[in-house]
Amino acid sequence: MTLSIGKALNAALRDAMREDDTVLMFGEDVGALGGVFRVTDGLAAEFGDRCFDTPLAEAGIVGMAVGMAMNGFRPVVEMQFDAFAYPAFEQIASHVAKMRNRTRGAVNLPMVIRVPYAGGIGGVEHHSDSSEAYYAHTPGLKVVTPATVADAYSLLREAIADPDPVVFMEAKKLYWAKDEVSLPVTTAPFGTAEVRREGTDATLVAYGPAVPVALEAAAAAAEDGRSLEVVDLRTLVPFDDSAVAESVRKTGRCVVVAEATGFAGVSAEIAARVQERCFHSLWAPVLRVTGWDVPYPPPVLEKYHLPGVDRVLDTVDRLQWDDVPDPRFLVPEQAT
């Protein structure tokens, strides 16, 4: 069947709630309205008070989920927009992330915090933000961001079943992306990156909303005779160092593509990890294509803020293609 990512997420929630009575879904406007992006459409009608609306109080939403998770439920909560979650961040950082450690493993929190994030819808102020770095930098949280229909279903099911808290980042502009899929589907587990396109000349590492951009850039580069490999991280925490390093060691070049701002972001961490693990295999420095270090601009300017194919290809062009490596710096297998 042909499904959108939004519909796949809805199916994952519906199937999880049918199979397990302890799974609850709540948040702002997720009940009768079905959520502003319609991800929870129809759940309240089928499951009654197991899918319900809450007041506009994000800290209260997450705090209530903590109590429920400690008492045998598996709550799934929605932060209506990315920046709406900031009032709840104290709960997330101080309680959600630390409960297992605080109780020396006696108490775990099987809960999911769904966060629609990033741009592409022309939202400003609190309606577009790339907040993944906050969560990835908080020990105790798993951070997941699907970019395909199959992953949207499978990773959300895995998140709901996980014994620990998961921040589930949903790229807003991908809600309407469609693909053929047969449900239920099970894809690779947390901590497993996926090579979406094979290549030999350079690796594009991307996640969430940047994955389709990287794939489009790789297709355009192929017309010019360059073979770019695209690695979709799928989860930021846990991070698949092995898959990323394997790809970069094969291609010798790496560009990280991420929509979030560049300074101190997830893209910087990825670049550092690649540099540390693949230094002797790199023909050029690891480069990044990111959003600018400014708040998301209004719709007329957003297209200049979001990393696009042209910016990715321009960055690929800066990977020192014409430089001849000094053989003194080749590792033995490259020198033969």
From TrEMBL:
Its cofactor is thiamine diphosphate. PANTHER family: PYRUVATE DEHYDROGENASE E1 COMPONENT BETA SUBUNIT, PYRUVATE DEHYDROGENASE E1 COMPONENT SUBUNIT BETA. It holds the Pfam family Transket_pyr. The keyword rRNA-binding does not apply. Keywords: Oxidoreductase, Thiamine pyrophosphate. One of its GO terms (molecular function) is oxidoreductase activity. Gene3D superfamilies: 3.40.50.920, 3.40.50.970. Residues 3-177 form the Transketolase-like pyrimidine-binding domain. SMART domains: Transket_pyr. This is Alpha-ketoacid dehydrogenase subunit beta.
